[in-house]
Amino acid sequence: MLKVDPRSSTPIYEQIQLGIKELILKGALQGGEKIPSVREMAGLLTINPNTISKAYGELEREGIIETLRGKGTFVVENYNREADESKMQYISEELKKIILEASYNGMNKDSFVELALKIFSELGVDKK
Amino acid sequence: MIEVNNLSYEIDGKQILNNINLKINKGTIFGIIGPNGVGKTTLLRCLTGIYKPISGTINYDGREVYDNIEVKGQIGYVADENIMQTKFKVKEVLKYYKYTYDAFDENKFNELNKIFKIPENKYIFQLSKGMKMRLSIMLAFSIQAKYLILDEPTSGLDAILKNKLLNIFLDEVFENNTTIVISSHHLGELERICDDVAILDEGVVSYENSVENMKNKIKKIQVAFDKPISEEDLRLKGTFKITKVGRVFTIVTDEYDEELVKSLKELNPLFIEEIDLSLEDIFIYKVDKEASHEKIFE
Description:
The structure holds two protein chains of two kinds.
Chain A: H1 12-25, E1 34-35, H2 38-45, H3 49-61, E2 65-68, E3 72-75, H4 85-104, H5 109-123
Antiparallel strand pairs in A: 1-3, 2-3
Helix pairs in contact in A: 1-3, 2-3
Chain B: E1 2-11, E2 14-24, E3 29-33, H1 40-47, E4 55-60, E5 63-64, H2 69-72, E6 75-78, H3 90-100, H4 106-116, H5 129-142, E7 147-151, H6 159-176, E8 179-183, H7 187-193, E9 196-201, E10 204-210, H8 211-217, E11 219-224, H9 231-234, E12 239-245, E13 248-253, H10 258-265, E14 271-275, H11 279-287
Parallel strand pairs in B: 3-8, 3-9, 6-7, 7-8
Antiparallel strand pairs in B: 1-2, 1-4, 4-5, 9-10, 11-13, 11-14, 12-13
Helix pairs in contact in B: 4-5
């Protein structure tokens, strides 16, 4: 289930956004499946509904979920996994920072790749 | 929207509130935190129109609150202590509310009482502290208020009721677009439910921001060097606290961004580590300036 740590420095909306993405990648949430409404999610997590709305808004913008009026919010079928170019650039920049950070902490290339592979298999995205 | 402009208040010639400015948006939850005795309750009593400000204004959608029955009728207030006549029975207080507030919704009261379970035939003085608080909350929620001013509403409630209550607050905001102002010492719960938070210290608002921005901007960073570095080198923008234990410096800043991290990296540190800061930590750093609670082993 989705976990939120209000004490973390990552803003709560971002934690929810990442949490839902993770559930989708792990297959716990599948295309076409309904996710809790803003109100239900606010109640489940005891988190401000405005924060939930923001997380859902971001996910919608990314094309991961969609809200059908009067029906609810759903995970998009066949969510397009082909990352667009701006996203790729963003990922490359973020990765650069992480690799820099890893080198600062004495990590070499092999152990970094090993770690990356481990995370891929944990998330269950290495099968396809 | 609630707008507080240059609000000041004195009690017996002692300045309690000093030039307070706040903007509280409709449909949001605004948290007020502060050490004991800095004027939180006084501020809330000004907001409800119980106290008349010495100077400054408090407007609800452009209407002054003091002595304004119409505005006050839309405000639900939960005081930090019992303000009900103790010789009344619960059902008599209920009757009093029905006569006083036109919009009083008895169904809503009964719905809430299924959760809070207050016997209507008891006298107020027979109720425990937590029961009086629950009753006060139910009454405030039953008048269909557009604004709720809650002074430490969760004190005296057990963990289960507290959680139910927080969900009732969230529902109220979601369903009715109600505006909630809440003071509390339970910073963990405010962190979950509030849009914005203000820190009140010695009668002034010493810090105000959305919870989200606070998390992005206020950061605690630990950094270590194998060469001598003076505290002055680390006094980057927004830094308001630096402590040093051995080689490790702990920096707390309220203007965190990539540029700051870059300036730190230019000093060639052994490591840079960002440490989670909860609202409670932020509060302690912002208010308790002298004390040093730094530990490197956390």
